[in-house]
Amino acid sequence: MELVADNLRVTRGYRTVFAGLGFSVAEGGALILAGPNGAGKSTLLRILAGLLPVEEGEVRLGGLSLRADRGAFVESVLHTGHLDALKPAFTARETLAFHADLFGAPRGRIEGALEALDLGFLADQPVRVLSAGQKRRLGLARLALVERPLWLLDEPTVSLDARSAARVAQMAREHCARGGLVVAATHIDLGIEGAARLDPAAFAPAEGAALPTRDDAVLDGDAW
Amino acid sequence: MKPFLALIRRDLAIAFRTGGGGALGVAFFVIVATLVPFGVGPIPELLSRIAPGMLWVAALLACLLTLDRLFQADVEDGSMDVLALSPLPLEMVVLAKCIAHWLTTGLPLLLAAPVMALTLQLPEASYPAMIASLALGTPALSLIGAIGAALTAGMRRGGVLTAVLVLPLYVPTLILGALAVNASAMDLPAAPYLMLSGAITLAALPLAPFVAAAALRLAIR
């Protein structure tokens, strides 16, 4: 299974973020998205996850096209964003039990997923008492719970300590070793051999480098 | 089916742990209905005349109370992204959340309504029609309300806008619900109004999730 993106173009708030962007990631491979703030790293990951529409170009995973087989494509993808998608009222274990049921993963994996991110001792604590780093780890525990070939990680190591960041890198390496694919926006080295690097800013059109005008910002409002 | 039920269970658990379950909506309903005799005076004939309409208006307002957070909380904390990537289609996500919303607002109103009917001097013979009208009409409130809630899900202060968008759409349900109770109070058949009210709910059941899901796709962009 190979991930291929071809000639992608994206506009956010009347500004072209990038155009003509393409890459391919082989089975067991990884792609690290680097680049300055606003280069379109998160946007690219959200497009690959099917959360944003493909305006122009095409993305294929194996035989699946994101445009034509969106449903099947999306079910091969696991996306972790800036937000951890946690409910303060639930315990860590309840959170993962819900995710397991929602994604059709066996509940027997919950303990393993908690252990994978060092959350065993916090399993019965409500999310509201967890620290920022612990919340992030619980958000990432979904990776160990649900089995999907393509991981899309948006700054997975933000607010993690060095030990936890190393664990996440280790999980990404193991996922690749199992034949999975990883596309990650990250500033730390995940240590995956042969991982390609891509800076979406390199595909920014000349006029896209200009800041959006005030009118654009007003029109775009909260959706930015 | 399992993801669908898991989502309903999750929303019910959140409602009970953080919002007091249906208690808040019921308390609001009781207070609004209790204010009426204070406002119009304790005249039994007048109260029993306006009771059907007041009960239904109070039910609409109680339903609106929890509506604006229906999707907003999930959009804000990123849960909607996860739900959008789950095997559950977004339309079914909406339906599951509507069911949970009805169980925590509509259903408790059914149970509290007889007490309020007593306060408002509703004739006893109208109780079955009142319960039936609420049972058939309140699911439509959750379903139609979901459209408004989805349209304002990405806004930080969408609560009032939700009400402005949704209340006009509630008018047919309100009229038919109140008419059913009124008719039975006057010894006329309530069935035609109940059937029409049920028809609105049945039409909203497949339609509202599609509209709300389309709005949610925009909200998470």
Give an overview of the whole structure:
The complex is a heterodimer of chains A (224) and B (221). Chain A has a single domain (3-223), classed as Rossmann fold (3-Layer(aba) Sandwich), CATH 3.40.50. Mean pLDDT of chain A is 86; it is low at 216-224. In chain A, the strands form 2 sheets. Chain A has a 5-stranded parallel beta sheet with strand order 6-7-8-3-9, sandwiched between helices. In chain A, strands 2-1-4-5 form a 4-stranded antiparallel beta sheet. Chain A is globular. Helix content of chain A is 31%, strand content 22%. The two termini of chain A are 33 Å apart. Chain A has helices at 41-48, 70-74, 92-103, 110-116, 132-145, 162-177, 214-220, and strands spanning 3-12, 15-25, 30-33, 56-61, 64-65, 77-80, 150-154, 181-185, 196-198. Helix content of chain B is 81%, strand content 0%. The model of chain B has no long low-confidence stretch (mean pLDDT 91). The longest helix of chain B is centred in the last third of the chain and has 29 residues, at 191-219. With 221 residues, chain B is mostly helical. At the A-B interface, strand 6 and helix 3 of A face helix 1 and helix 5 of B.
Name the descriptors:
heterodimer, A: 224 residues, alpha/beta, Rossmann fold, five-stranded parallel β-sheet, four-stranded antiparallel β-sheet, 7 helices, 9 strands, disordered C terminus, B: 221 residues, mainly alpha, 11 helices, 0% strand
What fraction, in percent, of the residue positions of chain B are helical?
over 70%
Strand content of chain A: 15-25%
Low-confidence stretches of chain B: none
Shape of chain A: globular
Average of pLDDT of chain A = 86
Largest sheet of chain B, in brief, is:
none
| Domain tally of chain B | 1
The number of distinct β-strands of chain A equals: 9
Oligomer: heterodimer
Mean pLDDT of chain B: 91
Going across the major beta sheet of chain A, what is the strand order?
Answer: 6-7-8-3-9
The sequence of SSEs of chain B as H and E is: HHHHHHHHHHH
